[in-house]
Design a protein that fits this description.
7-stranded mixed β-sheet, Aspartate Aminotransferase, domain 1, single chain, alpha/beta, globular, binds pyridoxal-5'-phosphate
């Protein structure tokens, strides 16, 4: 069969399973309101939890850095791509997260792939929550280490996997899970790691900026030290409203990554202006507590009103990610389309992003939403889910 024919066949199959993905074209900036293909929507599917993605001060800090440093970083960080702004951001993040050192990566995907492959040897065993992000799974596969997965958030299942393993052990989890909105019991997991001499790796992509004092993240919120959680990853594309990521840990850990993380060494450094944007964002995350307070007020209002209407929520989702599980992929697509007709934008999340038969609406909240939008959302959901 020719390549063209094989590709066409596979695409047809995706169509039939309601798993085909299409991109839509956004106009202008995005926020609580969004314009796509000339239609206006209330936006309930971005990860801009604190509403910082269009902040005037962040944009202006970026422009200032552009004037001084230009746009492209020109080379990888190990050649000439590393600047004083990158260094300052790394130092401020280390202090904020209570870690010795920080290393910036151009994206969270690159951070996870590069870090896992640099740290885990072929003879090691990685034990991972079954619902971990694709970048963690791919990093684990690339590392060539043995990979065992435990049932989502289930400590018993984690302990069983640990008992079976003989090698150097790693336990890898997200904090706030991106598609389920529930949170890993980090204290318990860290205690199990301590007992079994396993190294704990936490991806705080969705908790950083949201949890902990001044938004310093889930690990700091749980008061877990660098010794307890030696590898901490977080990203700037979610609550920070920018793009990029970092790994935080000991001096030896960060030096190891500089020597060996291939997605750090062989990629163009994050542009300095983006590092300047993140620095300003960090300043706002730390000082504007009202953003987190407003966000959690809106989430609480949503959960109360949705429960009154009988909308099936996840019992364990208390943060800005609120899934409504539909199950069937084509039904989830249809519900999402019906919501769009009511100017509510929530894309349907389907396998393989989520497990088979668990297609869902992944509703996300932002400090830039207002109360009226929450009420509109609940009414629209009740309507399309036939609950009235
Ligand atoms: C979004 C996300 C990433 C990837 O981060 P990017 O900066 O978007 O590449 C990694 N891990 C988790 C848990 C995420 O949700």
């Amino acid at each position: 069969m020719t390549l063209e024919k094989r590709l066409e066949n596979n695409l047809q199959k995706k169509h039939k399973q309601a798993l085909y993905r299409v991109r839509s074209i956004r106009q202008q900036s995005q926020g609580a309101n969004i314009q796509i293909d000339d239609q206006h929507y209330h936006n309930f599917c971005s990860n801009d939890y604190l509403g910082l993605s269009n902040h005037r001060e962040i944009i202006s800090a970026t422009k200032t850095a552009l004037d001084e440093y230009g746009l492209g970083s020109g080379a990888s960080a190990l050649v000439t791509g590393y600047t004083k702004i990158h260094q300052q951001l790394e130092e401020e993040l280390a202090e904020f997260t209570n870690r010795s050192k920080v290393l910036l990566f151009p994206s969270g995907f690159a951070a996870n792939i590069g870090t896992i492959t640099a740290l885990a040897d072929k003879g090691d065993c990685l034990i991972m929550d079954r619902l971990c992000h694709a970048s963690l799974i791919d990093g684990a596969k690339l590392s060539g280490s043995k990979l065992l997965r435990y049932r989502h958030l289930e400590i018993d299942s984690l302990e069983q996997r640990i008992e079976k393993a003989q090698q150097n052990l790693w336990v890898i989890t997200e904090s706030l899970f991106s598609m389920d909105g529930d949170s890993a019991p980090l204290e318990e997991i860290s205690a199990i790691c301590e007992k079994n001499s396993a190294s704990c790796y936490v991806d705080d992509a969705h908790g950083f900026g949201i949890y902990g004092e001044n938004g310093s993240g889930s690990v700091k919120a749980a008061n877990l030290s660098q010794q307890q959680i030696p590898v901490l990853v977080a990203t700037f594309g979610k609550a920070f409203g920018v793009s990029g990521a970092f790994v935080a840990g000991s001096q030896a850990l960060i030096e190891t990554l500089i020597q060996s993380a291939r997605s750090y060494i062989y990629t163009t450094a994050m542009p300095p202006a983006l590092a300047a944007a993140v620095l300003k964002s960090l300043d706002l995350v730390k000082t504007e507590n009202w953003r987190r307070e407003k966000l959690f007020d809106l989430i609480q209002r949503f959960r109360e009103k949705a429960t009154e209407k009988g909308i099936p929520l996840s019992e364990n989702a208390h943060g800005p990610v609120q899934p409504v599980i539909i199950g069937d992929s084509s039904k989830a697509l249809k519900v999402s389309e019906q919501l769009a007709e009511k100017n509510i934008l929530i894309t349907a999340i389907r396998p393989p992003t989520v497990p088979k038969d668990s297609a869902r609406l992944r509703i996300t909240f932002s400090a830039s939403h207002d109360v009226k939008q929450i009420d509109l959302l609940v009414a629209a959901l009740a309507d399309v889910l036939n609950l009235e």
